[in-house]
Amino acid sequence: MKKFGVVLALVTLMLAGSAVAQNKGDNSFYFTTYFSNANTPGAPDGTLRIINDGSASTSQTEGHPNGLMGAEILVFDDSQELQECCGCEISADGLLEESVNEELTANTLTGRTVTRGVIKIVGISLLTGNFVPGLRGTMTHIQAAPSGNGIYTVTEAPLADSNLSSAELSALEQLCSFSFTLGSGQGICSCTEEIE
Predict the structure, then answer these.
(1) CB 158: neighbour CB atoms within 10 A?
(2) Confidence of residue 25 (pLDDT cuts 50, 70, 90)
């Protein structure tokens, strides 16, 4: 029965091909989110999940990197200071999962332990170097119970589509460049291998 449902869905999509082709989807390439209760004893770890929806794919033959995108990730603390940045590759239809504690806040530029802040993500085509849509993602948020009794809940929300001004872009590029140049290895987040 499952197979029939899939075939029926594919036939429906083919018949509605012109409507599907006209749907432009979401053209966002800049996203923001927050993290809280990171590196907190007793609290679970937050997770940033990013997928490449495949919209940047080309007609290259099999065996060549196709639709390869980069997720430029910048992590700020709650004082608006850049703590870590990195660029992670995501293949078409690939999934990237980044631990807040282990990959995004373990190597801070200042050497401080960061517990809350903001994460910004910019989607870039690794074939052209241009900003392109195609990344989608979610973030798990670790919420402390109002009673403060060491109980935490985990919620998950989509990354927020955001507006990237030329001034913001310039600031992000400079901050990340300074982090790489002056950090002596500090301030660079790590990228996990894609889940296959």
Answers:
(1) 11
(2) low
Output the pTM of the full model: 0.83
CB–CB of 189/103 below 8 Å?
yes
User: CB within 8 A of 163, min separation 6: which ones?
Assistant: 30
Confidence of residue 65 (pLDDT cuts 50, 70, 90): low
Q: In sequence order, what are the beta bridge partners of 97? A: 49
Please state which of the ranges 8-17, 56-65, 127-136 shows the lowest mean pLDDT: 8-17
Nearest to 81 by CA among 159, 171, 161: 171
Q: Is 81 helix (H, G, I), strand (E, B) or coil?
A: coil
- Domains in the chain: boundaries: 24-182
Dihedral, CA atoms, 132, 135, 136, 137, nearest 10 degrees?
Answer: -130
Q: What angle do CA 159, 35, 48 make, to 5 degrees?
A: 50
CATH architecture of 24-182: Sandwich (2.60)
For residues 37 and 143, is the Cβ–Cβ distance under 8 A? Answer: yes
Give the chain's radius of gyration (CA, Å): 19
